[in-house]
Structure formats: structure tokens, C-alpha cells
Write a structure and sequence with these properties.
alpha/beta, 8-stranded parallel sheet, globular
């Protein structure tokens, strides 16, 4: 199994939000301004509470997330890291400029990740292009395999919501994980079943639905214009125009008490719901503060939700049909 994290359930911390602002033209892709010192303290707080895995991406903050994470984890080789490649960017302007298309570009991107992280080796690298046709992805995966053989990376995977993409790579010796959206609103049944069938680790992005399942947002909350959640991308299911989608908030309110079973917070219940679905899961909730990191990590003290609570939750939930796979 990829990423021997020495505990089950598995938990990582997602480092998108600590990267700070970056854009495509004037479209914000980050989560607003950050304080790097606060981010470093939050990383250390997560480690103090038992977290041994962090996930980032080269493009988060146009390289800034990797730099912050690498500096905070200097000398902490026992902490496992994954990053993602596939998006090209300009660090000085924090603009996304295109996508990786060739093996040579992918090799350069991996080297760039290692430089920013300050490591000679990274445990896991994901392809970050969710919808890339599998035939176009093969040269990039070839570069990942070459990097694995050279000892630069431990293994690789794909951040995708398409089961067929995972299946297309499953026979590669270094392909060990798929990263995909999964939460109470998006149960990702097809991808979870595919990961289990193929023996892949299921790394779960957006386990808190971009923050909705933190329980802190209300129907009147309005996010700042620099926040990615003010956009209206096709995959943006939880926020529209910087406000929580009412149906998602209503669903949370319906099961809020059940998520708090046994003294859990809403966050810890939402993570426990993922673990209860499969021991093969590894949610990677985001964080920006010490309090958020500690609350996320505190879910390890509780573990999966009880089966009876899971049944009660499923009896109450009213989700839209999952439908055919799509980027989420």
C-alpha cells in the first residue's frame, strides 16, 4: 500500500490554502492572502497531533505552497509528502500559464518540486490534470516512472475523478494511488470501488466540501473576491458567487447532530464518515490556522463513525444522483 502512515485511519493535510493567491488572468485560484508564519505553526501543530502526511501541488500559490511546506518540514524526513504536477506557472507573477504535455516537461516539473520542497526525494507525485485523456497522460507517467527508477520519487498516481483513467494506469509498477473528490455531498462510489478493486490508495480531496462541512458558514456568509470559491467553475458544487449553495447547507444541517456523535466536531464527523466507507481512504482536509489543523488532526482520536450512525445519516441524506464521472 502506498504511503505507510503507521496508523489506520489514514489522514493527510491538504496544502492548497496555505499557498496564497495565484490566478489565471484575473480569475483567482487560491484562497486569499496567507501569513507564512501562521502556516508553519499550523503544520507543526498537525504533526504534534499525529499527522504524518501532507499533500500539496506545484501550482498552489505558483510554487509557494511547496516552499512553505518544505521549509516547515526541514529535517522531518519521517513526514510523508505528495505533490502534483501538470500545470505550468510563473512564480513571479503567480499566473498559471498552461499545462505539461511532454515527458521532458514532466521531468523538469518533478525537479522543480524537489527544489521548492528542499528534498532529494518525494514520496508520491500525482498527475494534476483531472480530465486529460489517458493516451495523452502516458508520456507524463513515463517521466514519473523514470523519476521513480532514479530514486527521485517513491511512487505516483493521478488526481482524477474518472475511474477509467485510473484503470488505464493500474498495470504500471509505480502507480499506487488515485486522488479524487469525496465527501458527504459527493460519495464518489464508482471511484472508491475502482480504487478498492485495483488495490490503490484512495486519497480524498475536498473532504469538507471546500469548507462547508467545517460548520462555520451560514446562508449569509459572503467570501472575499480573491477566494476561488467566488468563481462559478463547472466543478464548483458547494459555493456560487462566494456563498454556500443552499442545498448543501441544508443537507449539512440535516445530519449535523449525527456527525457530532461521541463528542466529535462537525469536521471530525465528516472525516469519520469517509473512513467508515472504506479503510482504504485517506482524506486530506485543508487548513490555514493552528486551530483548523488541530481540529482536523483531532479526528484521529475518534476514527470512523459507527455503522449505526452511518445508516442513520444515509437514511436522512438527499443528494443529487452521482451520474456519470466528471471533474469535481
Amino acid at each position: 500500500m502506498a504511503l505507510d502512515l503507521n496508523h489506520n485511519p489514514r489522514l493527510g493535510m491538504g496544502c492548497w490554502a496555505i499557498g496564497g493567491p495565484f490566478w489565471t488572468d484575473e480569475t483567482p485560484l487560491g484562497w486569499g492572502e496567507v501569513d507564512d508564519a501562521v502556516s508553519a505553526r499550523a503544520i507543526h501543530a498537525a504533526i504534534d497531533r499525529g499527522v504524518r502526511y501532507f499533500d500539496t501541488a506545484s501550482v498552489y500559490g505558483a510554487g509557494h505552497s511547496e516552499r512553505v511546506l518544505g521549509a516547515a518540514l526541514a529535517g522531518r524526513d519521517e513526514v510523508k509528502l505528495s505533490t502534483k504536477i501538470g500545470n505550468c506557472f510563473d512564480e513571479s507573477t503567480r499566473q498559471v500559464t498552461g499545462t505539461v504535455e511532454t515527458a521532458a516537461q514532466a521531468a523538469d516539473e518533478i525537479d522543480g518540486c524537489l527544489r521548492r520542497l528542499g528534498r532529494e526525494h518525494v514520496d508520491l507525485v500525482f498527475l494534476h490534470l483531472n480530465e486529460m485523456p489517458s493516451e495523452d497522460a502516458m508520456p507524463i507517467l513515463d517521466a514519473m516512472e523514470a523519476a521513480r527508477t532514479a530514486g527521485k520519487i517513491g511512487a505516483y498516481g493521478w488526481s482524477t475523478d474518472f475511474p477509467a483513467s485510473a484503470r488505464a494506469c493500474a498495470n504500471r509498477p509505480g502507480f499506487v494511488a488515485v486522488q479524487h473528490t469525496m465527501n458527504l455531498w459527493v460519495p464518489a462510489s464508482q471511484m472508491l470501488a475502482t480504487a478498492e478493486d485495483l488495490g490503490l490508495l484512495s486519497v480524498n480531496r475536498m473532504p469538507l466540501a471546500m469548507g462547508v462541512f467545517s460548520g462555520k458558514y451560514t446562508a449569509t456568509t459572503q467570501l472575499q473576491s480573491s477566494d476561488i470559491r467566488t468563481n462559478s467553475f463547472d466543478w464548483m458544487e458547494y459555493f456560487q458567487g462566494g456563498q454556500v449553495v443552499p442545498e448543501v447547507l441544508d443537507m449539512l444541517d440535516t445530519v449535523r447532530d449525527l456527525l457530532q456523535t461521541g463528542g466529535r466536531s462537525v469536521v471530525q464527523g465528516a472525516l469519520g464518515w469517509i473512513w467508515a466507507r472504506s479503510p482504504n481512504t485517506c482524506p486530506i482536509p485543508g487548513f490555514r490556522t493552528v486551530a483548523q489543523a488541530e481540529e482536523n488532526a483531532g479526528a484521529l482520536d475518534f476514527g470512523p463513525l459507527p455503522e449505526t450512525v452511518m445508516a442513520d445519516i444515509e437514511a436522512l441524506l438527499q443528494r443529487p444522483p452521482e451520474g456519470a464521472p466528471r471533474a469535481r
